DNA sequence: TGAACTATACCGGCTGGACGGTACATTTTC
DNA sequence: GAAAATGTACCGTCCAGCCGGTATAGTTCA
C-alpha cells in the first residue's frame, strides 16, 4: 500500500482538481503541486498526461466493476436487476466518491475521445444484458436515469438535496425490482 | 437574415467541430477555417472565445425555451407534464439537432464552469416545477433519464439504434402522461 | 453629383503566455 | 552503491487575443 501511495495521491488530486476547479485547471504542474511533488516526479509515475487520464479511467472502471459485482456470474436476467440495484445503492451510499470517479471521464473526453472506448464497451454490454430482461424498456429508462444523475452531478447541474435524492433512488430501486417480476402480476 | 449568416455559420461550425472532432480541436482558428473566414474575421463577430461559447449556450437556451413552450402559461401541475412530453417528442423527432445544441455545454464546462450558471438556473426551475406535480418522484426520474440520454449521446457513450430509442421514448411519454393522473386510478 | 467621411466586415501577421514533454542532476532507499 | 524516486531547467508548440491594415457600402454635405 505504502509504495503505491504517491501514485494513488496523484490520481486523487487529479480528480479533485477537475471537479473543484474545472478541467481547464487540470495541468500536470497543478496536479504535481497538489500532490506535493514536482512535475518531474509526477512524470516518473505517469509518463504522459494521457497515461494519467488512463489511470483515472482504470480506477473508475475497477470501482464500477467491483461495486456492481460484474465478476459474479448469475443468470442474464438477474444480472441486470442486480447491477441496477447495486448501482442505485452505491449512488445513495457514497455519492461523493461516485462523482469523483467520473472526473476521468470528463478529462478523457476533453483530451482525446478515443480514450473512452472501454467505457463505450461497458455501456454496450449493459445494453445487451438489458435487452434480455422481461421489461427491458423500463430497465433502459432506469439505466439512463442513473447516467443522467451521475453526469448532471459531474457537470454541476444537479442541485438536489439529499432527502430528495434518497427518495428518488428508493423509487428507482423499487422499479428495478419490478423489471423481472412482470409475469407475477400480469 | 443574410447579414446574420456569418455569425450563424460560425456557431454552427463551432458545434460541429466539438461534436465531430472533440473539444480539444475547438480552437478559434479551426472554427474560422471551417466557417470560411479568418481568425480576425471571427473575432470581429465574437470578441473572445468565451463570447463564442456564450453564443452557443444562448442558442441552446433559446431553442429549449421555444421548443418546450416555456413561455406559455398553464397551471403548474400541467406544465411539468407538458414540458416532459415536449422534450421527449423533440428528442425523438430531431435527435441530431438536440445533440448539436449541447456542444456549447461541453465547451463551457471545459473553458469556464461559471458559464453554465444559466443552465443551472434552468435545471433548478425544472426541479421546482416538478415538485408541484402529483408524482414528483416519477417526474424526476423521467427528467434525469432525458438528461442521461442527452448527455450520454453527447459524450459518444450511447450506441442505441433508432428503433430501441423510439420504443424507449414512447414508454417515457406514457409514463409522463401518468404523473398527474394517479388520482384517477388509486 | 461627387468628394470626403464613416461604418461594417474581414484579413493575416505577430506575440506572449501556458503547458506537455525531455534531459539530466540529485536525493532517498534498500 | 545501485535502483527507485524526485527535483530543476529548459525546449517547442499551440493558441487566444491584439493590432494595423484593406475593401466596400452607405452617409453627409457642398
From TrEMBL, chains A, B:
Transmembrane segments: none
Keyword Zinc-finger appears in the UniProt entry: no
UniProt keyword list: DNA-binding, Transcription, Transcription regulation
PROSITE patterns: HTH_TETR_2
Domain HTH tetR-type: 4-64
Cross-referenced Pfam families: TetR_C_28, TetR_N
DNA-binding region: 27-46
PANTHER family according to UniProt: HTH-TYPE TRANSCRIPTIONAL REGULATOR YJDC (PTHR47506:SF1), TRANSCRIPTIONAL REGULATORY PROTEIN (PTHR47506)
Protein name, as recorded: TetR/AcrR family transcriptional regulator
Organism: Anoxynatronum sibiricum
